[in-house]
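Self-study notes.
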Amino acid sequence: MLHFDVFFIRTLFLFMAIEEGFVYLLCISKEEHNMYYASGTYEAFAHPKKPKDVDEKSAYIIGTGLAGLSAAFYLVRDGQMKGEHIHLLEKLDLAGGSCDGRKDLNKGFYMRGGREMDNHFEIMWDMFRDVPSIETPGISVLDEYYWLNKEDPNYSLCRATVNRGQDAHTDKQFKLDKESALALSHLFMTPEKDLEDKKISDVLPESFWNTNFWLYWQTMFAFQKWSSALEMKRYLCRYVHHIDGLPDFSALRFTKYNQYESMILPLVKYLEAHHVQIEYGMDVKNVILETRGNKKIARQIIYVKEGKECSIDLIEKDLVFITNGCCTDTSCYGDQNHAPNLNHVKNGRGESWDLWKNIASQAEHGEYGRPEVFCSDIEATNWMSATVATSNEEIIEKIMNICKRDPRIGKVTTGGIVTIKDSVDHWYMSWTINRQPQFKAQDKNTVLIWLYGLHTDVKGNYVQREMRNCTGQEICQEWLYHIGIEESHIQDLAQNACHTTTCFMPYINAFFQPRKNSDRPKIVVDGAVNFAFIGQFAETPRDTIFTTEYSIRTGMESVYTLLDIDRGVPEVWGSQYDVRELLKASYYAIDKKMLSQVKLSLKEREMLKVLLKRVKGTDIELLLKESGLIE
C-alpha cells in the first residue's frame, strides 16, 4: 500500500507553505543581451522587433532534423533574416532527420519510429501555428492537428496482452507498492545534481519492476533499468499532469499521417517559400572553433560533397547551428527476406558522433560535451523496429479482437502501443496501429502496423532466433503468434499475406545513458559568439529528450540567443509546481482511492486528522475534494 507521506502530507505541507506566503517559483529573469523564458499570452502573442544588423548576417545549419528546420523557421519568422541568407546543410537527399517515413518501391514502407505529442509542447505549437497546412488551404498545421484530435480523441482499449492476444487487464491501474511509491516520490524531489551518472536501478527498488507503472513507463518511453535516473526524474516532473492519461494514452495526440508527411514536409515547404536554401549531399565533418580570450568563434565548416573535401570560411556575422549526435545514426535496414547487416556497427562509430567528437576535441574544459558518454555501449542503447503491411482478413480480425476497433475506418485504432507481456523475457515487443492510411500513397485496403522490441539479443517466444538477426518475415511471424494467429497459419501468412521491413538502431536510446548535465553542451556555450548546438544532445534545462518539443526548443533557444531576440521563449510547462496537478497525480497514483480507503499506520492517521482539521473550510479543502482525495 502507498506510503501516505509520499502522496499527501508533502503536498499538503506545500499548500500550507503557500498559505503562509512561501511560494516556490522557477524564474529565469531577462538580462540584457540574453535569451529569457516567459509564460502567458503577453509574450506569446507579441511580435519581436527585427534584430540589430540581421540583414548583414548569414546562417549555416548542419542537419535538417526538426532541430535544424525549426532553427531555420525562427530565423525567418522572428529573426526576420532573409531566406537567401539561410543555408541548411544535409548529407542525405531528404530532409527530416530521425522524423522519417518513406516508401521504398522495391522493399515497402519504412517507419523507424513514431512521435507522441502533448498539448503542452509550448514551442512546437508556437511554430506550427504559423506553418501552413499542405492538405487544407487556409489553415495551419496546428489547426489541422487540433481539429483532428478534437474530433477523434486518442485512447487505448487494450494496453497489454497475455496468452497470445488476450487482454492483460491492466485496467488503468498502477499497482504501486509502498516502497516503490516512496522511491518515486523521492526521485521526483531529488535535485538533478544528485542524480548525475546514476541509473534508474540505483534509485528504485526491485519491487518497482513488477508494477504496472513500470510496464507503462518502460514501453511508452523506452527506458531501461540501466537508463539515466536524471532523465527519469525530468520525465516525472515534465509530465506529472499526464499521470491520469498514462495507463490508456488518453494524454497523447497524434498526427494524421506519418511524421514526415505531417510535420517535416509542411515545414520544408514553408522554408522553401521563404527562399531558404536546403543543400543536400553536404557531409559535414568538422566545424573549426577558435578561442580568443573569452570569446569562442566558429571559423570554418569542413564538409565532403561528391567525394571532394571542401570548406566554408566564416566571419563573426556568420551563424552556425550544429546538430551534435543523432539517435538514428548507423541505422541498419532489413526487409522481408533479409536481416539487417550489422557488420559495420561498432561502439562509437557513426558520422554524427564523428562530427561531435571532432568538435569536442577542440574544447579547453569539456564545454562542447562528451559524446563518448552516449555512443560507447551499443548493447545498452539499441532496439529494433519493424513495419508490417497487410490487408489479410484473418489478421485484421485478430487485431480488432484486441483493440476493439477496425483499423480501416481512418480513426484511432490501438490508441498507442499494445505491449505483449508474454515477451518480457524475450524480445519484449509492443505494437501499434495509428490512423490509417499512414502514408498518402498507401492503398486504402492496406493496414500498416509498427512494432518494436526492446531486447534484440535474445530469442523470441515463437521464433528461436535473436531479433536483430531476423528477417522481416521472421519478425512478422513472432508478432502473428502473439496476436493469436493459429500456429499452422503463421508462416504462410507472414510470407504471403504480409510485407515486413525492419530497422536495427544501435544508438536509439543513447540519450538515456547515465550522464552529468555537463556531458551535453549548452545550446550556446559560455563565450560563444556565432555558434550553437541543437538537437537531442544539446542541453536545455527541465525539458525531456526523445520528444519533438526538445528538438524544436533547442532550435528556438539557439536563434533567440545568437540574434538577441527580445521576446520570451515559452518556458517548459510547469505542472510540477502546480499543487492542483500534484494532488490529481496523487489521486491517480494510488489507483483513484480516497485517503480514507488507503491503509495507513496509526501515526499517519493521526497526522491526517490534524492536517484535515487545519485546512477545513479553506480553499485547500476544496482542492482536495476536487482531486478526489477526500469526500
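Second protein, same conventions, sequence then structure:
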Amino acid sequence: MDEGSWRLLFDLIGLKPNALVVISCRSLQGIQTARRSKLEEIGFQNIPLKGLTKADTVDFVQKRLDQHSLSDQLARIIVETTEGNPLFIDEICSLLKQSNLSLKNGVAREDYESKIPKALETTIRSRIDNLSMDDQLVLKIASVIGTTLQVDMLQAVAPEGLDVTKSTDRLLSQQLLKSNPVHSEDLMFRHQIIRDLVYDGLLSGQKREIHAALAQLFEAVARGSDAVRLPQVLYHWRCAKNPKKVVEYLDQVAALRLRQFDNRTAIKLLNESLSLTRAQGIELDDHKKASCHLALGEAYVGNGLMAGGEKSYEEGLRLLGLALPKTTRDVYFSLARELLKQCWTRLTGPPTRAASLSSMQSQRSSNAFYMAAQAYEDLTRIYYLGGKKPRLVHAVLKATNLAESLKECTPALAMNYATLGAICGVIPLRRQAEHYLQRAAETAKLYDEPSVSTMVDLTSGLYRTSVGDWKQANANFVAGMKNARAIGDKRRWCELAICLETIAGPWLLTPAFLGVESWEKLVDEIESVGRDREDSHAVACAVLASLRGNRVLGRTSLSEDRAEAFKELLSRENCELELIHKVEGCAHLAGRAFEKGNRSNGNAWLQKCSDLLSELNPG
C-alpha cells in the first residue's frame, strides 16, 4: 500500500469500528518496522497463507466453475500445476470457462496440458515485467542455476555492482522466490512454472554465458572424487555448448560412476564422449583415447557385457602400443615370450619396489603400463568365459609381467599373481599355484583396498576348490563376498556367490553345505542381484543352480519350472553364460527329455552338448 492508504487505515482503526479489518500483503518483511510495531500495539492477528490442499483445490475449482464434480485427470493436472496457489487456480478456471474444455472423464491429458500452463504465463509475465532491471537479471541468473539456489552462488556469478542481497529480498517479498524448507539459508523458486518461464525467456547467448560462468565456478572447487560437483560441471558445460569441456567432464563423471559401480551410466557417458569426439573433430592424444576405451571396457565387463568389453580393451591396448596378437600363430609366439620373461623373474627374483601407498596411488593413475595390466586382468576373465585357453594364459602372463615391470607395487600385481596361481592349480602345477597365491596374499597386504582382497579371496577359493579343501574354499568365498558387499561391487559378489553355491549345494554335499534353506537363500539372492544388474551370466547361473539342486532333491515341479526358465535364457543372443555351464544345462535338459520318453528331443540336447564341448575344447 502507498503512504495515503496506510494513513487512512490507521485513522480507521483509531475510530474502533465494529468491523473486521483485513490487511493482505505478500510478506510482513515488506512492511516498514514502525508500521509493523503499530500493528502489534493494536493487537493484530497474523494469518500466514499457505497453498490449498488437494481437496480444497478441487472444491475451489468446482465452486468457481459451478460444477458438482471434476474428472480425475483434470483435478490431478490442476493440483500438480498450481501447487495450491489460489491465483494460479483462478487463472486456470478462467481459461476453462473460455475454452469450453470438457470437465468430465475422457478428455486426453495432452488437451489439458497444452492449454492450462498458458493460462498462467500471462499472470507470471506481468509480474516479472513489473520488476526492476536488477531484479529481473537476478531472477534470470537464478533460473539458470536451477529450482534451488544459494545466494553466495548468485553473488559469484552476478555482474559487479549488482546488489544481489537486496534483489533477492525483493523477490522474496514478491513471492517469486521462497526460503528452502530443508536448508533455510538457501532459496528456491516459488513455483517450477516461474523458473521454467524465466529460463525459456532467455536468449541462447545469455544461457550459454551464464552456464559457462557457473561451470567455471564449480570447476574451481570440484575434485575428481566430487560426486556432487562433477555432474554439475558437466551439466553446465553441456548447456554452454562447449564440446571440448563436455568431453573432458564426460570422462571424469564416467570414472566417478565406475568407482560407484554404476556401470550402465559409465557406458552411456563414455560412448557419448567417443561419439562427440568424432563428430566435433576434437583432437586427443592416443593416451587419452586409450584411457577412454579401457574405462569403457571395464564398464562393459562390470555390467556383464563381455563382447563389448573385449572389443574396447583391444582398442585401448592398441592405442597404448600394446596391440594383442591377432592370429593363432602370433598368440603362441607371444605366449612363449611372456613365459620366458616370467621364468626369468622367478629365477632372478622380483625387483625391489617401493611400499609407499601415497606415491603409488599418485603415479599409477597416469601410468600406461598400469592401465594395460588392469586391462589384461579383465581380459583373462573374458577369455575364460569364451573358452579361449591360449589367449587366457597369454593374458595372465602378459598382465603379470607388465605389473612386475613397474617400479612400484600395484593392486593389479596382487590380482595377477592370484589369477596365475588359480591357473597353475588347474593345469595342475600345485607348487607353482601355492607360490603365486602366497605372493598374491603378501602383495595384497600392502593395500587397504577391499577390492584387492576380494579378488585374492576369489582365486584362492577357486584353487582350494580344485584340490578339495572345501572348508578353506568356503571361508575364502564368504570373506570375499563380505568385502564385495561392503564396497558395493555386485559383479564380484556374484562371481564369489556363484562359486560358493557350486560347493555348497545339495548336489555335491561337501562340508560347505549348510542345509537346503541356506542354499535356497543364496540362489535366490544371486538371481535377484543378477536381474538388478541385468547380468545374464549371473541370472543363468542361479537358474541352473536351482535346476541342478531341485532335481537332486526330487522336486519335480520346481525343476520343471527352472528347466523352462533356463531354456529361455539359453535361447537369448545376449546370454553371457560360461560354456561349461551351458554344457551342464544342456545335459540336464537332455536328461529331462529322456525321463519323459522324448528321445528325439533328448538327442537334440545331447548334440548341443557335443557342439559346446567342441567349442570349449577344439582339440
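Instructor comment on the second fold: The chain has 30 helices and three strands.
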